[in-house]
């Protein structure tokens, strides 16, 4: 309606016309002035536009007869504010402006209806008498400034008033067109009798038109209306004027609300909804601080100067505002100097919605404020968000006590929820669980779904903290379901965030990522920046766990930026912790250290001891990675001291675990064991299975370093059992990695290889590339120990590729170190030197002294192999110096071993003996039995070289004893080798032979080619079985040479057959065929038909694999003929089935079916029912391929009957599936439906859920063919439910019909047009 007030070009200057049209259109608001009685003559308030008096309104019928004072009293309870506007009617132009302004204000207010906007009661207008009154409801609490001065109001109560104001502004700004209030300030905010804030005084208000969608941004999205000069002058605020004489800034209108005015209004005089938001920032300031804007400034010029320079208060430094940092952030967004990017009311409202608040309560006792349970709960939450645990706990307890005493069950349960959160933050999980249980019971009893969901969420987190992840997931899922059902987005997002944490703990990274993304989307949509930042932090952890470091870094950076913006210091510090972890993973130690230092500084500043301790923990890890063990120990000790002092047992255990790792790196194994045992005890007491398992893994590695292999194995197996029980795949894989190391140390290479392979498979499955690379590195070490150098090289190469791709310099350098060792063993010394040099460069660049020394060790051995003794000695000496400097005793001893070898190679026996003796002393002192035995072996070699055979024998015997005692077979065999050489030198030939035989037996058993190379027996099959192809070929060729020389045809054939198999596995097909045919010739000479047939079959299988079907058919037929001739039925069946496969590959289905009939007869005669059913099934498939449906059906039915007779339910179900598919092809969907239904029932009875889903897929097709869309929908739903429950992916069939069912729900008319075709 306000637009009607704008004069049109050429319109007559009519004083009343436009305003009269407006007012005449509002008859329901017009009040006869005689009905208004104003007992008080003195105004309650005065302003630039008039005065406010209190009045009452009498009924119309009382006006005509008059009313006495006594009856008037009955109307005085209903008080109204009479706003009497003043105008100088002698000035015609001013009178026009005044009357239009009056009508404008009334027309705007008449269209408003909102609990936070003042309600228009009516108006009085007699322009000839100069009467222009606006009648509003009187609010006795006055304006917000007066209200705040009237009592004691806590922060949550003040926030409630702010939310009311913003809600009202949001309403105005979301109108079409939007309404700009134009004069927002505390004086124009009233507080009603319900203690809610309402916006009043619309004398400066006007409408605005919106910009197009493409122009919208962060800000208001509106532009001022187009006005003529006169109207623009009325609706604009006065502009700044500069006094040229005094150089002062002034305003021409002394009544203008300067203190709340936005800088752009001072510049161009135009009010807009963005300038309203500037004023909202100041209203927040007023409500929380109780102070006017720029209260300390007295002149307009001073205020104007501050505003245009953007010199505004530091909100976070204020005692009250510092308690609600999210509000500080929003105020800063209101005070952005550029209006276009200033926050809008809707966004402000969304973000403010999450701040703790409650409607003010004026309850007092003896002049002291009485806080309600609800207010105490909100105060507790406010303190909790500040990490002020002590104050939070006391207020929650206070709230619970008051609520219990007043039987306010809702408030009591909410207070218990808050207490549970406090306990959870203090790692008091038992207390947290109990408190959340009590809260959930109360919420459920009183039917409060929201509260019940919140309590379930808290319970879920408590379970998760105690590694009861299955219960945790169930609780959080229930919470999420309730929140989603009741439309509580915040609760749903928080539950998703917790589910993400639970999934991450269970290594379900894909599900975790999805949960965090959903949580982030919801939190962003509802404007909860703190929650969005938490979700980003969770995503960052997931990306880091999956080695997606770039994405992780980006997520943590965004979280850091968001938390910084909303003033969440804890969140900022946590994001820095996350960044530190990412930098650590990428070996960016300087950046990591800086991030952890900043995090520690923030945590310390805000008094967050837990966070400060964890930041110190992170720093300790960085120092440890750089071999700064003293600094690492100090940081972790400080972390442990803080955690212990504040009673954070979980943090204390974590710090002890870190100390254990540091001690282990420094070879202080007893200290390491003590620290980790203490950590394990704490974890166990807290029911923290993950922590307990982690501590056991650490103990296992410590025991392994001390050669206590049985204890190490036991500890790691316990860790593996716990991790398996709680479904923590990552933990399972890590335990397997540890077991692999223990098995390797004991020369149990088969077990070690299996452990590392299982670990690698798990790491790959859960998307943990970093773990997979570590397992590959372990496999590389195993292959190297077993002389499987090709496989070792491949494993190290793969590990290096993964580490390089992930930006993990440390891992890449370790893999290069492994490759260097492999190249050296294969005499590829140039490549070995290059690999070790690259590793050395990486280690040196990242400041990893331990790695640098390790690379120097490797270089020393390469130089030694190349007879570069001087360079080798230099490298070993440098390595020894570094190891000694960083307190790595084991490394120093190993470097001395290397030096001893170099001195030995140069015949510097005195220096060599001294180096080995020092190495032996260190290894013995730190409890490294393997190292001590190795040093004794070196001493034995030195003594032997010096012909000190007695001392040599003693040294080798001691080494053998140690190796045998700790179960190190490889070492024991090597010591026996040394003894054999000493015995030989002393002409003790029998003892020498016995020692070497024992050595050969051990080497053969553990697959040590170097030791077994001295044996005459063939090791070819062992090497081939263990994929040591080069060694196998060499051994088999030697064996073949011997057998040929001895004219042993059978064994010559066996060697040739084994060579053929070896070549086949390596895809060396030409050599394979030559070997197989030579074997057949040898067997023929030996007249050994069985072996001839076996080799013919192997040849046929290989030719089949190469698609040489005619040759394969010929070879297998020859083999079959031989087995028939010797009546070997078992091998006849095997050969026949291979031949049937070859027929099928050539589409010779008739021959295939005929052959299968023969085979079935043989199998039936052998009484092998299960095999017979399998052959019948193959026959059925063959008939289907020929289009012989009746014969196929007969085969399937017979197979079903056989399987039923032997009680093979699953096999019977599979035959029913074959029959169902056959019926579909025959366009017999009803029969197909019956078969699939029976098949499903059979699978279900056998507990085969995958089979059930397959049967349901068939049923869906059958139902669709019969247009039974209802049944189809049921089957589809059941299949989806099974897939969801079992974690299986949905089949393409199910996905297709699921979409169809959805489409039919949305468009039922599609049923008539749906067409199906089956093949």
Summary tags:
Phosphorylase Kinase, domain 1; mainly alpha; Serine Threonine Protein Phosphatase 5, Tetratricopeptide repeat; six-stranded antiparallel sheet; protein kinase activity; Transferase(Phosphotransferase), domain 1; ATP binding; 70% helix; single chain; repeat; 1319 residues
Polypeptide structure, described:
This is Protein kinase domain-containing protein. Keywords: Repeat, TPR repeat. One of its GO terms (molecular function) is ATP binding. The structure is a single chain. By secondary structure, this protein is mostly helical. Among the domains are: 136 residues, Phosphorylase Kinase, domain 1 (2-Layer Sandwich), CATH 3.30.200.20; 209 residues, Transferase(Phosphotransferase), domain 1, CATH 1.10.510.10; 82 residues, Alpha Horseshoe (Serine Threonine Protein Phosphatase 5, Tetratricopeptide repeat), CATH 1.25.40. Helix content is 70%, strand content 4%. Strand 8 and strand 9 form a beta hairpin. The chain is globular. It starts with 16 loop residues before the first helix and ends in a 13-residue tail after the last helix. The N terminus is likely disordered.
User: Mind telling me which CATH architecture of the domain at 144-352 this is?
Assistant: Orthogonal Bundle
The helix-and-strand class reads mainly alpha
- How many individual helices? 60
**Average predicted confidence as pLDDT:** 85
Beta content comes to under 5%
Question: Can you count the beta strands?
Answer: 16
CATH class of the domain at 144-352: Mainly Alpha
Task: Write the CATH fold name of the domain at 144-352.
Answer: Transferase(Phosphotransferase), domain 1
Given the C-alpha coordinates, what overall shape results? Answer: globular
- What summary fits the major beta sheet? 6 strands, antiparallel
């Amino acid at each position: 309606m306000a637009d009607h007030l704008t004069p049109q070009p050429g319109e007559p200057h009519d004083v009343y016309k436009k305003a009269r049209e407006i007012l005449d259109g509002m008859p329901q608001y017009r009040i006869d002035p005689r009905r208004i009685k104003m007992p008080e003559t003195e105004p309650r308030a005065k302003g630039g536009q008039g005065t406010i008096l209190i009045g009452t309104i009498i009924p119309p019928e009382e006006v005509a007869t008059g009313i006495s004072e006594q009856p008037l009293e009955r109307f005085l309870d209903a008080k109204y504010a009479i706003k009497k506007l003043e105008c100088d009617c002698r000035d015609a132009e001013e009178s026009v402006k005044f009357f239009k302004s009056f009508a404008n204000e009334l027309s705007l207010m008449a269209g408003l209806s909102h609990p936070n906007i003042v309600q228009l009661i009516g108006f009085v207008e007699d322009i000839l008498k100069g009467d222009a009154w606006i009648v509003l409801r009187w609010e006795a609490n006055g304006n917000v400034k007066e209200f705040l001065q009237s009592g004691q109001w806590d922060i949550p109560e003040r926030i409630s008033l702010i939310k009311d104001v913003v809600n009202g502004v949001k309403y105005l700004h979301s109108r079409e067109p939007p309404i700009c209030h134009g004069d927002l300030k505390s004086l124009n905010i009233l507080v009603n009798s319900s203690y809610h804030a309402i916006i009043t005084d619309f004398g400066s208000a006007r409408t605005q038109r919106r910009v197009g969608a493409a122009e919208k941004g962060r800000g208001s999205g509106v532009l001022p209306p187009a006005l003529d000069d006169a109207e623009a002058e009325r609706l604009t605020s006065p502009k700044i004027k500069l006094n040229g004489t005094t150089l002062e800034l002034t305003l021409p209108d002394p009544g203008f609300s300067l203190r709340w005015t936005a800088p752009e209004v001072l510049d161009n005089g135009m009010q807009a909804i963005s300038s309203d938001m500037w004023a909202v920032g100041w209203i927040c300031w007023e409500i929380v601080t109780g102070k006017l804007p720029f209260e300390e400034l007295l002149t307009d010029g001073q205020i104007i100067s501050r505003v245009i320079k953007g010199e505004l208060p530091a909100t976070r430094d204020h005692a009250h505002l510092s308690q609600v940092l999210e509000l500080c952030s929003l105020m800063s967004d209101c005070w952005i100097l550029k209006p276009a990017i200033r926050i809008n009311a809707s966004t402000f409202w969304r973000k403010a919605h999450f701040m703790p608040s409650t409607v003010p309560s004026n309850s007092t006792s003896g002049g002291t404020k009485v806080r309600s349970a609800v207010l105490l709960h909100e105060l507790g939450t406010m303190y909790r968000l500040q990490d002020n645990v002590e104050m939070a706990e006391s207020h929650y307890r206070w709230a619970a006590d008051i609520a219990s005493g007043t039987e306010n069950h809702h408030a009591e349960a909410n207070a218990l929820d808050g207490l549970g959160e406090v306990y959870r933050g203090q790692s008091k999980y038992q207390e947290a669980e109990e408190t959340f249980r009590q809260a959930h019971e109360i919420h459920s009893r009183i039917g409060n779904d929201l509260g019940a969901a919140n309590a379930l969420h808290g319970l879920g987190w408590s379970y998760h903290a105690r590694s009861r992840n299955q219960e945790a997931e169930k609780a959080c899922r229930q919470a999420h379901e309730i929140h989603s059902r009741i439309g509580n987005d915040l609760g749903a997002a928080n539950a998703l965030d917790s589910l993400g944490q639970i999934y991450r703990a269970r290594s379900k990274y894909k599900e975790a990522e999805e949960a965090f993304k959903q949580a982030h989307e919801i939190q962003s949509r509802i404007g909860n920046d703190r929650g969005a930042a938490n979700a980003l932090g969770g995503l960052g952890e997931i990306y880091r766990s999956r080695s997606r470091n770039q994405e992780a870094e980006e997520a943590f950076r965004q979280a850091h930026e968001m938390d910084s913006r909303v003033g969440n210091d804890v969140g900022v510090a946590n994001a820095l912790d996350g960044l530190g972890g990412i930098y650590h993973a990428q070996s960016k130690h300087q950046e990591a250290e800086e991030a952890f230092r900043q995090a520690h500084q923030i945590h310390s500043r805000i008094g967050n001891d837990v966070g400060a301790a964890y930041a110190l923990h992170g720093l300790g890890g960085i120092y440890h990675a750089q071999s700064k063990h003293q600094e690492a120990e100090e940081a972790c000790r400080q972390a442990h001291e803080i955690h212990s002092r504040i009673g954070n047992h979980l943090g204390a255990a974590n710090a002890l675990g870190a100390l254990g790792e540091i001690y282990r790196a420094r070879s202080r194994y007893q200290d390491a064991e003590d620290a980790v045992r203490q950590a394990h005890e704490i974890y166990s007491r807290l029911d923290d299975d993950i922590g307990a398992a982690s501590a056991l893994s650490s103990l296992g590695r410590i025991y392994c370093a001390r050669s206590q292999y049985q204890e190490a194995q036991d500890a790691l197996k316990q860790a593996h059992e716990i991790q398996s029980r709680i479904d923590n795949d990552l933990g399972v894989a890590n335990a397997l990695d540890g077991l692999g190391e223990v098995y390797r140390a004991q020369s149990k290479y088969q077990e070690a290889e299996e452990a590392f392979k299982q670990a690698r498979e798990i790491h790959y499955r859960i998307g943990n590339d970093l773990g997979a690379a570590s397992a590959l590195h372990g496999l590389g070490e195993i292959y190297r120990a077993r002389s499987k150098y090709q496989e070792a090289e491949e494993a190290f190469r793969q590990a290096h590729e993964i580490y390089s791709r992930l930006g993990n310099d440390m891992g890449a350098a370790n893999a290069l170190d492994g490759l260097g060792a492999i190249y050296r063993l294969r005499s590829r010394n140039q490549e070995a030197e290059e690999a070790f040099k690259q590793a050395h460069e990486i280690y040196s660049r990242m400041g990893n002294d331990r790695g640098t020394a390790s690379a120097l060790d490797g270089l020393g051995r390469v130089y030694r192999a190349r007879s570069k003794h001087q360079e080798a000695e230099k490298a070993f000496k440098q390595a020894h110096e570094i190891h000694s400097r960083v307190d790595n005793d084991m490394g120093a001893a190993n470097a001395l071993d290397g030096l001893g070898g170099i001195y030995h190679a140069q015949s510097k026996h005195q220096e060599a003996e001294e180096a080995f003796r020092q190495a032996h002393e260190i290894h013995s002192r730190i409890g490294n039995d393997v190292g001590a035995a190795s040093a004794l072996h070196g001493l034995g070699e030195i003594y032997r070289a010096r012909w000190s055979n007695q001392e040599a024998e003693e040294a080798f015997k001691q080494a053998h004893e140690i190796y045998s005692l700790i179960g190190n077979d490889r070492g024991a065999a090597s010591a026996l080798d040394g003894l054999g050489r000493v015995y030989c030198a002393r002409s003790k030939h029998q003892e020498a032979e016995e020692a070497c035989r024992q050595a050969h037996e051990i080497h053969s058993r553990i697959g040590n080619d170097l030791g077994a190379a001295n044996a005459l027996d063939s090791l070819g099959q062992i090497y081939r079985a263990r994929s040591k192809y080069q060694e196998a070929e060499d051994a088999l060729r030697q064996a073949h040479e011997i057998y040929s020389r001895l004219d042993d045809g059978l064994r010559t054939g066996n060697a040739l057959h084994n060579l053929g198999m070896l070549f086949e596995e390596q895809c060396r097909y030409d050599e394979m065929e030559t070997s197989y045919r030579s074997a057949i010739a040898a067997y023929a000479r030996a007249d050994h038909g069985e072996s001839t047939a076996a080799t013919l079959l192997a040849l046929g299988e290989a030719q089949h694999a190469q698609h040489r079907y005619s040759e394969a058919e010929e070879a297998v037929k020859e083999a079959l003929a031989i087995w028939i001739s010797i009546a070997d039925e078992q091998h006849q069946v095997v050969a026949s089935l291979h031949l049937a496969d070859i027929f099928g590959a050539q589409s010779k289905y008739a021959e295939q079916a005929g052959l299968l009939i023969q085979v079935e007869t043989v199998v039936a005669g052998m009484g092998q029912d299960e095999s017979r059913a399998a052959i019948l099934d193959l026959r059925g498939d063959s008939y289907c391929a020929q289009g012989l449906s009746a014969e196929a059906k007969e085969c399937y039915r017979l197979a079903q009957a056989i399987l039923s007779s032997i009680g093979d339910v699953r096999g019977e179900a599979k035959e029913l599936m074959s029959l169902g598919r056959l019926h579909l092809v025959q366009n017999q969907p009803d029969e197909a439906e019956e078969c699939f239904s029976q098949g499903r029932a059979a699978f279900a009875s056998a507990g085969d859920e995958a089979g059930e889903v397959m049967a349901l897929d068939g049923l869906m097709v059958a139902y669709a063919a019969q247009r039974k869309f209802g049944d189809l929908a049921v089957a589809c739903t059941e299949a989806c439910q099974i897939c969801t429950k079992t974690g299986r992916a949905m089949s393409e069939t199910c996905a297709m019909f699921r979409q169809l069912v959805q489409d039919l729900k949305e468009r039922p008319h599609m049923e008539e047009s749906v067409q199906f075709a089956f093949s």
